[in-house]
Design goal:
Helix content is 66%, strand content 0%. It has 217 residues and is mainly alpha-helical.
Length: 217
């Protein structure tokens, strides 16, 4: 008569296996994010990341080939979470000024909420190459381009050169946002107002700066 398999050899349900995979991946990303902030990207090793988790080395390599893949995954997870919000804000715009302000404000709010990740990027110049070439980041840029096309169709924006316009928005958002998260306390509304006024009215529309904040050459 055949023996029944012991309880220790029961197959793990597929649902539980998926939960374990998700938990392991999340543990790696959490550890890496913390270490990138503490030690810097270049100084952090895969061994450091594994040591910050309860996982074996072999388990780590089931998920990532190295820390570059981990960094891209961190960027993609952030982009995946925020893309719907950025899109929703833009499609709710009712005017040119509203479209621009919603675009900048929502992006700066996201930067503020994830400033630890952006600080890692700032402190590690080699990551600048990695920050814009992941699938989710590229998809986010494509969505912005599509939303601009739709805004032109709706009459919110004039018939402008879309590629130049999108590139300008991205450039201003990243650079102004970078300055914003270095200031304490972070003022999202001030950054959004500055970028929006620059786009919608040019230099003459910008408010005068506090003389104490003017950078002297």
């Amino acid at each position: 008569m055949d023996k029944k398999p012991s309880a220790s050899h029961k197959p793990v349900p597929a649902g539980r296996r998926e939960q374990t995979k998700e938990a392991n991946r999340a543990a790696i990303l959490t550890a890496a994010r913390a270490l990138f902030g503490e030690l810097g990207y270049s100084e952090t090793t895969v061994r450091d990341i594994i040591g910050r988790t309860s996982l074996a080395s072999g388990t780590f390599y089931n998920y990532f080939r190295g820390k570059e893949e981990i960094f891209k995954a961190l960027r993609d997870e952030t982009a995946q979470q925020v893309r719907p919000r950025l899109h929703d804000e833009r499609i709710r715009a009712t005017s040119f000024v509203d479209f621009i302000h919603r675009t900048f404000r929502s992006f700066f709010e996201i930067m503020d909420a994830n400033r630890d990740l952006y600080s890692i990027i700032r402190r590690n110049s080699g990551l600048l190459r990695l920050q814009q070439d992941t699938p989710e980041i590229i998809a986010g840029f494509d969505e912005l381009r599509d939303d601009v096309k739709e805004a032109i169709r709706r009459g919110l924006l004039p018939s402008i050169d879309i590629d130049y316009f999108v590139s300008a928005i991205i450039g201003v958002a990243l650079e102004v946002g970078d300055v914003m998260i270095q200031r304490m306390p972070v003022d999202v509304e001030a950054a959004a107002r500055f970028a929006s006024q620059l786009f919608t009215g040019g230099i003459p529309a910008l408010p005068l700066s506090d003389p104490g904040k003017v950078i002297k050459s």
